[in-house]
Design a protein that fits this description.
Length: 275
Amino acid sequence: MFFTNTGQVYWLKVHEIPEAGRATKGKAIVNLLQIAQTEQITAILSVDQFQEGKFVVMSTRKGLIKKTALSAYSNPRAGGIRAINLEEGDRLMAARLTSGNHEILLGTKHGLSIRFHEEEARAVGRVATGVWGIRLEEGDEVISAEVLSPNAEASIMTVTEKGYGKRTELSEYRTQGRGGHGIITIQTSPRNGCVIAALQVKDEEEVMLVTTSGKILRLRAGDIRVIGRNTQGVRLIDLEGEERVCGVARLAEKGEREEGTPTDPGAAADAGDDA
């Protein structure tokens, strides 16, 4: 399932996506999906079947979220269908699969975050508009939406555009009511830049950083320092000139690739859709 910034969703069988080497350019998405020239893919979900009891939780740049039953998207059309009704000037930035009983963590580019239970957002129809997930200050926008695992050993990894990042214990992010202004997850400044990703990781997992010049860096999450929320982080990657980090993805473990998890699909697309 391919979700676009305009709130549309399209379908494609995995075997229809051409396989190629790491250094190849790939095939233009407009040759695979009937998307408009103004549309950009902002989230990707891998779905085996549209089973009952599963939900799609979507987040927009302006802080709205919407939860809809996965079964509402079970009838694909070549030209796509409406996944969410967006307000003028807003755009869809993330879509996640949930069981209806998860917590959500939204992160913003100015270093704020909010943690709340998804039950606070009731399931609505496919073409409905969302409700407030986080209320933003002028100039801020949501850049990440994580479906949290209850794993006590997990932490929140935050990465900024100038190559800085850190991990912070999940316990430092208290649960709040949906629609609040959130709390600081990292101090942003001219030194480290705006936040481009905030994701939940475990020590043994690996993450990949992608830069605007096409470089990638693969890191073990456990090697990244754990520090408090109200800090600027440490340098993770050296950048040259105007180069910036534009995407971050948590690499799926072998078992997750086979079974599929709600937090992996779309992570790279969400973090790097403006690249």
